[in-house]
Design goal:
The complex is a heterodimer of chains A (about 475) and B (about 475).
Chain A: H1 8-16, H2 22-40, E1 43-46, H3 48-63, E2 74-78, H4 105-112, E3 116-121, H5 155-162, E4 168-173, H6 179-185, E5 188-191, E6 211-216, H7 219-226, E7 259-263, H8 273-288, E8 292-296, H9 304-319, H10 338-349, H11 352-365, H12 371-391, E9 397-401, H13 417-421, H14 428-433, E10 437-445, E11 448-455, H15 461-474
Parallel strand pairs in A: 2-3, 7-8, 7-9
Antiparallel strand pairs in A: 1-3, 4-6, 5-6, 5-10, 9-11, 10-11
Helix pairs in contact in A: 2-3, 5-6, 7-15, 9-11, 9-12
Chain B: E1 3-14, H1 53-65, E2 73-74, E3 76-80, E4 90-94, E5 103-108, E6 114-126, E7 130-132, E8 141-143, E9 150-156, H2 163-179, E10 192-202, E11 212-217, H3 220-239, E12 247-252, E13 257-263, E14 273-274, E15 281-282, H4 285-293, H5 299-310, H6 314-320, H7 324-337, H8 341-358, H9 370-381, H10 387-400, H11 404-411, H12 419-432, H13 434-441, H14 447-458, H15 465-477
Classes of the chains: A alpha/beta (about 475), B alpha+beta (about 475).
Chain lengths: ~475, ~475
């Protein structure tokens, strides 16, 4: 098999019908991965050997009649997830040689479901970035135009799925890190409700915002993969004890009578006009599918970027304190004393963006500033949550843009963190409120993909996937493959 | 000028849970370094804390025992600072919303008066690891076995006015946590230790003086010595025109002095904020009620009962309720003897305590158990032996084991209560000492004691003293 099948669903069917074995399938993806690596730099670590062993085991399980829908399906993990015996770098020099002694719960859940890990995907350092340019392992390139960024922080995940060098990938989203790269690379991304997936083994950036999710070709694929990585985990107190439905069961449900809200604040002057047109086109598709559309307002939403850039750095400044050169990770050469050990190990191990956020976070938590920044940001966060809650009394789902513009040129925004931060202006709100969000491809502007964002109430993943799937039955944007990788 | 001392204590009591407060590692003391530290304790990338419910129950027990409000909603916060024995770079503690709010504890001072000490709050937190230097020249070793051990930090109001009061308060808390079985109270192993905030002010002044905090005092003796040293230091400093600076000090037990560790300017800004990895602790009223129902009798209640039911003095009742085990031992003796609880108290607090002390044993390790001691007291009460002989019997029981009856039989110590036998002994003594007899009869009453001594000597100390007195008076009178 030379041309890879387009979706996990199709691969699953092919494996079930024994059209190909998992070993054959895995080998084909490994070949694509190796040849695409110089172009895209999507992977930090390729695990060909263990992938083939896992694929062989999957084939054996299938032969023994013990195969599920995902048995033998290759996927790749964002390098933020700990993987036992495999280097887990989080895109940082700090962890460049860190081999995790354990698996993240999300990783073990997907492994138990039979998936085969191809390797670990590139990302912004400690998930801090919107362009995948902060990675210690170099930037990832957008498969649609390799001069462009793939978005971030899950840039490796989005580029790999867009180029079909991995059928699907795990990712994480703290302020848009799944949805924004999914939009910029023309793939499907889902950030579930905060607490839906365990954070155990997912290296923390901002604990109250971080959420594991997926980047896939289609909503159907996301529905297939989300189940095994969801559910309460006794090792994560913030994971939620709420039953995990079969997300595939409701994919085809009718959208007749669904009320879609368009958030006024999402259609602001910052939104690129051509992108807005693609979003409006997508909304028309929904209307044809029977959905009612109404406008809703979330007046506090424009405060989400400043709120986020207080809360997230505050948490990160504390979460990243453990990288001190004492027990694991980078340690400077011949430290003179304890302070020198800390200063140089951290100074050498962290990149500029990580340092910027640690400093910002340290500042906003400092004596005398805590009330003015951290506490006030938490209050605004409550207001934003309340805006969403009110919106969901009037509609079932919110639709809007994922990102203000399509992908931008590598290097274009590196010197201006504020402009870079504004990339997440439409995605951050869902994180602050703990809501599930998706991005699905809805067209192109000058050859670059545009993403449609879907935001739902807490634990409405099934409803979002249903809405995304029905749209993808009407359109084929999600099936487009960049010419260089077709 | 006359000075007044103001002291507040922060007591750290290690909770006696089997596993750590946020991980499943064991908390046993004395294991090989780093054998009781898992990935959570090591602060590995990606790991998360999960609260130990037993630690919460223990904190609630303590709160209820000091009559405090138990917070229906309390929050864990991160206290951020860098230190090699603090793996995550922050300690998980409670800051704005502790689990136990205001409470009180009564202490008895040396002059017998009671004093009520306010407890500001008590909160749950994790302990840090230990830095090791011994046997590692030029290096620092880190042992994380202790990292994540649950602590309850008990913060008093600045109500204490002397080192003695501070020690009395600390002992009271020590008694209480052991009664509640939430802490083993082992001070050598660091299970129970305190920081003392000490300041002085001119007597009558309302305003507090600048305080110094003496860290990590792990014996009652050190608490007393360190505070007394610090009081003197501060008074001398002020009287010679200096100023006390707010700082952290360490007590050096070898030199008997406190030394500056770091000043206020060098103090960390801990950047406390609610820990986003842990949910707020929400306690139902029924949960608190069920813990309250299961509380044991507390030391003050027990002491009041001893005064009421056994007619003991407040002092004796206080001594006998200093630990749950001692109280149980005493009550077992009383029940077995069936009368004279005061005599039972004297034996437990007197000879038994002295022997325990001499051999450095706990009441639970006593060589004479409560059944054996009650056997001995019973023989005093039923006049089989005198109190004086009983002391010898007790010594033999302590040294050789065995019951009081066995030793009394073997050594022939049974008291002589036979009137004839005592009379015969008296007559023999009178016959041997005609001179003294004549003197006595001519009015030298003091010689009565001489005759008592001689008769006792003749009977090997076994004559019943009351009978002897009575018969001797009669015989001497002639």
């Amino acid at each position: 098999m030379s041309a890879p099948a387009p979706t996990v669903a199709a691969l699953s069917a092919g494996l079930a019908k024994r059209e190909f074995s998992s070993v054959e399938l895995t080998r084909a993806y490994l070949e694509r991965m190796a040849s695409a690596q110089p172009l895209l730099n999507a992977f930090i670590t390729q695990t060909a050997e263990s992938a083939l062993a896992a694929a062989a085991a999957a084939d054996a399980a299938r032969a023994a009649g013990r195969a599920g829908a995902l048995t033998g399906v290759p996927i790749a993990h964002k390098d933020i997830f700990c993987t036992e015996g495999v280097r887990t770098t989080c895109g940082s020099k700090m962890l460049a040689d860190f081999v995790s002694p354990y698996d993240a719960t999300v990783v073990s859940g997907l492994r138990a479901a039979g998936t085969v890990m191809l390797g670990k995907l590139n990302m912004d350092e400690f998930a801090m970035g919107s362009s995948n340019e902060t990675s210690f392992f170099g930037p990832v390139r957008n498969p649609w135009s390799t001069d462009m960024v793939p978005g971030g922080s899950s840039g490796g995940s989005a580029a790999a799925v867009a180029a079909r060098i991995a059928p699907a990938a795990t990712a994480t989203d703290t302020g848009g890190s799944i949805r924004q790269p999914a939009a910029l690379c023309g793939v499907t991304g889902i950030k579930p409700t905060y607490g839906r997936c365990s954070r155990y083994g997912m290296i923390a950036f901002a604990s109250s915002l971080d959420q594991a999710g997926l980047i896939t070709v289609s909503a159907e694929d996301a529905a297939l993969l989300l189940g095994p990585m969801s559910g309460f985990d006794p090792r994560d107190s913030t994971s939620v004890e709420s039953a995990v439905p079969d997300y595939t069961r409701t994919l085809g449900d009718s959208l007749q009578g669904l009320t879609i809200g368009l958030v006024t604040e999402f259609f602001d002057k910052g939104l690129d006009a051509a992108c807005e047109q693609r979003i409006r086109d997508a909304i028309e598709v929904y209307e044809k599918l029977g959905a009612k559309v109404r406008e809703v307002s979330c007046p506090n939403l424009p405060l989400s970027v400043p709120t986020y850039y207080v809360v997230a750095p505050a948490e990160c400044s504390s979460n990243l304190a453990r990288f001190d050169g004492v027990r694991f990770g980078h340690r400077c050469d011949s430290p003179k004393n304890l302070t020198d050990l800390y200063c140089r190990s951290r100074g050498e191990g962290f990149g500029a963006e990580v340092k910027r956020r640690i400093m910002t976070g340290t500042y906003v938590l400092s004596a005398g500033y805590y009330d003015a920044y951290y506490l006030r940001a938490q209050r605004v966060r409550q207001l934003i949550s309340a805006d969403f809650a009110k919106a969901f009394t009037e509609c079932d789902l919110l639709l809007g843009p994922t990102s203000p513009t399509p992908a931008f040129r590598i290097g274009a925004k590196c010197d201006d963190p504020i402009t870079m931060y504004l990339n997440d202006i439409y995605t951050i709100g869902a994180n602050l409120a703990g809501l599930p969000g998706m991005s699905i491809p809805c067209g192109f502007v000058e050859g670059l993909p545009v993403g449609l964002q879907i935001i739902g109430p807490h634990f409405s993943e099934a409803r979002m996937l249903n809405a995304a799937h029905r749209y993808q039955q009407e359109t084929d944007w999600h099936l487009r493959v960049p010419a260089a990788f077709a | 000028m006359e000075w007044e001392t103001v002291i507040g204590l922060e007591i750290h009591a290690q909770l006696a849970t089997r596993s750590k407060i946020f991980s499943g590692s064991a908390t046993a003391y004395g294991a090989e370094p780093n054998t009781q530290a898992n990935l959570v304790d090591l602060g590995y990338p990606g790991v998360l804390p999960v609260l130990n419910a037993e630690a919460v129950r223990m904190a609630v027990r303590f709160g209820l025992a000091i009559g405090a409000q138990i917070a229906p909603h309390s929050v864990f916060a991160r206290k951020n600072y860098f230190y090699p024995d603090l793996p995550k770079g922050y300690q998980i503690s409670q800051y704005e919303l502790p689990i136990v709010a205001k409470g009180v504890l009564d202490i008895v001072l040396d002059d017998g008066t009671r004093k009520r000490v306010g407890i500001t709050r008590a909160h749950l937190e994790e302990d840090a690891g230990k830095s090791l230097h011994e046997g590692l020249p030029g290096l620092t070793g880190i042992d994380l076995n202790r990292a994540g051990t649950p602590l309850i930090e008990i913060v008093s109001e600045p109500d204490l006015r002397s080192a003695k009061e501070a020690v009395a308060y600390m002992k009271k808390v020590h008694t209480l946590v052991r009664y509640l079985e939430i802490c083993d109270g082992n001070m050598q192993e660091g299970s129970f230790r305190c920081d003392a905030n000490v300041s002085v002010r001119p007597k009558g002044s309302e305003k507090f003086g600048t305080r110094a905090e003496i860290k990590n005092l792990n014996s009652f003796r050190f608490v007393e010595k360190a505070i007394n040293y610090e009081i003197e230091r501060q008074i001398e400093l002020i009287e010679s025109g200096g100023k006390v600076v707010q700082e952290t000090r360490l007590y050096d037990p070898d030199k008997g002095e406190t030394r500056s560790m770091r000043s206020k300017e060098e103090a960390n800004d801990y950047r406390y904020f609610p820990d986003p990895d842990l949910l707020p602790v929400v306690l139902e009223e029924s949960f608190i009620a069920s813990i309250k129902a299961a509380l044991p009798e507390l030391p003050d209640e027990k002491a009041a009962r001893f005064v009421r039911d056994y007619g003991l003095s407040e002092y004796d009742a206080g001594v006998l309720t200093a630990s749950r085990e001692l109280g149980a031992f005493y009550e077992d003796v009383v029940q077995r003897v069936g009368r004279d609880p005061k005599l039972c108290a004297n034996w437990v607090m007197g000879d038994l305590a002295a022997f325990l002390n001499k051999d450095n044993l706990e009441i639970t390790e006593s060589k004479v158990d409560s059944a054996a001691l009650s056997g001995l007291v019973t023989r005093i009460v039923d006049a089989t032996i005198s109190g004086k002989i009983a002391k010898d019997v007790f010594e033999a029981m302590w040294a050789e084991g065995g019951s009081a009856d066995e030793i009394i039989e073997k050594e022939g110590l049974r008291q002589i209560t036979d009137t004839g036998a005592i009379e015969q002994a008296i007559e023999e003594v009178m016959a041997k000492n005609p001179g003294q007899l004549a003197d006595y009869r001519s009015g030298k009453d003091k010689l009565f004691g001489f005759f008592v001594g001689q008769v006792m000597k003749a009977t090997g100390g076994k004559a019943n003293p009351a009978q002897l007195n009575e018969l001797l008076k009669k015989k001497l009178a002639g």
